[in-house]
What we know:
By secondary structure, the protein is an alpha/beta fold. 24% of the residues lie in helices and 15% in strands. It folds into three domains: 6-169, no CATH class; 188-387, Rossmann fold; 392-470, no CATH class.
Amino acid sequence: xxxxxTPYLVVxxxxxxxxxxxxxxxxxxxxxDGIVGPxxxxxxxxxxxxxxxxxxxxxxxxxxxxSDAINTSDxxxxxxxxxxxxxxxxxxxxxxxxxxxxxxxxxxxxxDTSNAQDTGWGTPDSGSTxxxxxxxxxxxxxxxxxxxxxxxxxxxxxxxxxxxxxxAGLCIPKISQLNLEEIKKGGKVDIIWWIDTSGSMGxxxxxxxxxxxxxxxxxAGSAIDYRVVLIGKSIGSIQVCVGPPLGGPGCSGxxxxxxxxxxxxxxxxxxxxxxxxxxxxxxxxxxxxxxxxAVTDDNSSTQWSSTWFINELQKLDAAMFQKSQDxxxxxxxxxIVGYPNKSQCSTLAQVGTVYLDLTTKTKGEKxxxxxxxxxxxFQKLAKSVVENVKPPCIHKIPLPAGVKTAQGVTVNxxxxxxxFNVPPATGNLCPANGVGxxxxxxxxxxQITLCTKSCDLLKGxxxxxxxxxCYL
Length: 472
């Protein structure tokens, strides 16, 4: 009577993984923990015969049987697995419905040949009726061929090394990873609001109080790491007070909200923002995109022009208001002001030309202060803030125990249903297609910077995995 075959399933899986080089661009369906392990391998009972693990010929027969079972998957599926880079489609088309329905998954990247759909990064092709999806852009499947070194698929890795008797060896990989759910999918943003609380701004202050929580909730719902600063002071009947959940009891602050109780008059908003900066500096983050929002029915005095404000912020703290290709002046300026003229916006005191100029220069949003329903204003403004936030592209390399250097590290992107190798940039310079990563110091790397296209993968969460080779 044959022994039960289940205990030997892990041995078969290891042989398949360590003996056959995995396709470098093939996406792998991962387990719930994001790693393919022995418990995730399922082999149909008629495809692999039981074998004595101490009998080398039996092992070879079992390995051959498993390979035969895999190779008999329908030709459409085999083509997709072997050429995922060429046809830029994920695996899982409807042709698999004709198969036995059994699942064959192992660490070489061969996936379920039943009628399953990949839930990965790609967006469905237009007009598609099946489960095909585009290969996620920013992954190695989107890059030109490169020598990425060993490709890790979880517990087993094709090392090409010897165990002493020839052939590939078992690898227990040395891995560390960053959880992007904790880092936040979309990166960081700081929004500095200021409001003129002169005598004509009573109704506008009420609109601000009523809508700022919804504004913050929208940004939080987009998985953005945000902070809000509000500069303005209650004067008489004009109250500036934001309650929970953004604010605290009695118009106080909170973990993501800092009220700065400073009075801003009709024409000195820009000046007061610069003057009160030290009170909010510790609350702001250097790696967050900065947004200013002006709320006033007047214009700035001539000595405080748009050019003056841009220059003053750079003199004040150039590191905080970092210029970049996307944020050329170090910040984005939005205006809720009076325009285009008094006949079309009767509540304005003066057209806010200086603020509108700042909005144009920094590619912000502008809104009419004379509107009586501010909910759409805050909604559109929140969407604009979210769209301008970039995911964090610079990450420190966490060395696992026993590893002294990050030289030779392999970088992978891992999500619930996706696994992609991210290639090192040739010459440590990001290519034109934006795929890959660079090192701060190739001889002694401490952090990586993902190139633009690869960094965009992070918008969906998941993990960045650093593979340092094998313990064995």
